[in-house]
């Protein structure tokens, strides 16, 4: 029945190009499953239609720009029909051949492309081996639909042992038909291209190449390989890849070669090679013809009916289908028959694609031809040839060895070499996504090509220079360092062969191989090189050298009792043996809490410093392993030669001066460079104070730079040096630290006094990097310096003050280990909440949110060391209440004649309000703990602020977002109870802005906490009903949307009581008599409007279907369409939204309405045709 309907739909129809693809896909499965019936019904009729069109229409009209629309459609239909199983096409041989004889010379592009598609489909159907009979099930397939619906078998599991796959194997008759077809049509096209090259048009040439390409793609599966001598010993390998080891596909075993006039591969190879030469010499602008000829030329060597691209596409389709059948809950997937058969086909195609991967002499000549075209002077020719060459390399193992010498010769040739040849070679070396020559595991390639690229680096053309840079980056990314072994003798080989067991620890000896001094000296020279890429690599190298040269630390292991021994903590501190995160008595000693640095070096060295932030936070291990706070440093007395090179170079003031000038400039954005920071850190760690003076002198010069182009880069460079100094001094002695900070303090003071928008970020990175992963007690000097910035006031430069607070913010990396500092910050920030500068207020809000993020509640109670958020929020609520009252009673601007004065107290109140909003938002971003109850208690004020009439859209958006964050947070039962109480309170306030905000928030609350808030459905239902009768229109409209959302998501259900209640309200009489006159009662019109809005909420709660209540509700709304304007507008908006959401499926939805109801809808709406 389905096939009959489809054939009736297609017969006699002509489809536009936009729908042909859809109709073709509709025909294709029927052709595959029922080829006999569909061919009998459509193929003769289609062939006859094509012949009739060609007989009636002049050929010049068919070949013109527009072509013949009807002919193109029948050719596309014909191409779909010949995809049927090969044996079913044999009885239509004459019809099929006659169509091709008439159509193969048509020059219109759409027509000859459809003809080519039909040729390829026909040959694939005749010659391919493919599965047939892909039924969903073999049971009940002949039963009627009343007993068995095939759709019920879709996606069912199949038993691998019972799948019974059937294949189409080409018969002798099919191969004869295909060979006769190829002989008939390919040779005239080859003759045309060879003998009439100068006489034929470009369109004729392109048509001929497209036809040849389609024949090649369809028949090469049975055309044997060209006989040629195999190339031996292409590369050294222990497992030779010989032709004798290949398995041959059964289709190749048929003696099809004698059925062709000659080996078509060889004929195409010769003809296409000559054609390519003539095209490039005489018709270089015909890129399309060159592309097709090049592809046919390459296919003659590498194509045997399938390609890796086809297999990759099949795998992608199978993998996407697998996901559809996977049960994510139990982690298993079904195996339907279609999926299993697709997987079998992939294995067959993959097996076939692995044949013939050995290189012969003919293949070698093809590769050299492709290489010559890859370095051609025409860019399009190069691009297409390189694509074919890369696939050639992928297919034939080690075939790239043939061109290595030629590439090296071209790259090493004189400067007069054609730039196009150089660019072509570089593109070949750069490869594509599947092939990259330079990282192949070959010493020959590295020896010949890597130095050639380096020598070619200084090129005049920017495009060539960029190409070389891309190659270098690709090598850095993909090259895997090869292990180097100095000597391997025969005895070592024999020992390695017999030794087949894990090595003991005492058998493993790791020797330190010293770095050559020349290598270090070269990298040091590159630090001040003009080339920025060389400088970047030199920085990485010096950082690595410093890390390799660092002297070892001395580690000790102690228990916590031993660490406490000799201190007052040994008797007063109890050690927790179980995991108990947070503040405890036994981890107080790790914090910077009234910490005083020791006075002697001995005490300083014996302190147990633990740098990682997690140490002691959860639980103490039985023993603690830590490094003694001392480290040996290199001195000028005893120092290895490879270390002295670095020391001598940085002791040279001229070298440091040149270095500081070079590092100012960076490509692109000027960002703090972590690699340079690590280099400086290693230098000062290894050599101590040796060259601090040299760098301090340059840092002063950098921070005092006034040239606009160098200003930001100079400060970034200075910040990197200072960060390296501070972090490198981690294990210095107290005397050395004191000397360092005597020099750094005035420098940093000068820097902080002159911070601006270009420099503050770099100095913030400086302190963040030098403090990260360090014990705060060890870093007491930088912490003390940052602490001085907290109470430092700047008059007239608020940006500088905000920048200094950004430096204070870098203390966040120390987290819970600086409670006294967080208290100091809290006390100072509390005074700046209403600061006049917006930037300053944002900075205060950020740093307060960081400090309160450590006030966490654990199972053992609350944090007692950090600033308490409850205390702060209670204070803020009182201040916020006062600020709202001030702002509402005093205007922000006072107008006195032509003068406008800003009210200071009102402005201060608004500043505080803005700070509270910023703090609230930042707290959700930076706090790792779920929302606290004290934050929920701030909600009424966030609603009340909505009534503040500012013209700042950003302020309003952030206020809305602040309320939304509460709804988005995870809320347990206790918090939900508190929040709903707050909502009920807000909905009774006199400010309608607050009431509207609260109802709007309810939607977010329910949608984000749908499971937890289920038990409060009755209370929220009552709250929404109450607000639906609000005297303010804006509140009622929001309530209607909220109620509709509740109905739609299933949080509330439309009941008969709801419907009855809204109908009763909508029928409220809004007229009343006053002094004998009828007037509209405001109270009654609000009640009537509330009922209408409730009905609108029901109607809009079903945007994609029609629930049982909707027809009745819409009829009631139609009756009220002539009510006062307020009600009319709401009904009009409801119908407009209803029409928008039901437009696409109205032909189905209208069945839910009676004819009278449809007529009433048509009378109400403007566009009557929509409902009729």
Automatic annotation (TrEMBL):
Family from the record: Belongs to the BLM10 family.
Domain named Proteasome activator Blm10 middle HEAT repeats region: residues: 1-218
Main location: cytoplasm
Lineage, highest ranks first: Eukaryota, Metazoa, Spiralia, Gnathifera, Rotifera
Source organism of the structure: Rotaria socialis
GO molecular function: peptidase activator activity; proteasome binding
PANTHER family: PROTEASOME ACTIVATOR COMPLEX SUBUNIT 4 (PTHR32170)
Annotated GO CC locations: cytosol; nuclear speck
Domain Proteasome activator complex subunit 4 C-terminal: 1086-1171
UniProt keyword Membrane present: no
One record GO biological process: proteasomal ubiquitin-independent protein catabolic process
Protein name (database record): Proteasome activator subunit 4
Key words of the record: Cytoplasm, DNA damage, DNA repair, Nucleus, Repeat
Ranges in a coiled coil: none
Compartments, record wording: Cytoplasm; Nucleus speckle
Segments forming domain Proteasome activator complex subunit 4-like HEAT repeat-like: 523-810
SUPFAM superfamilies named among the record's database cross-references: ARM repeat
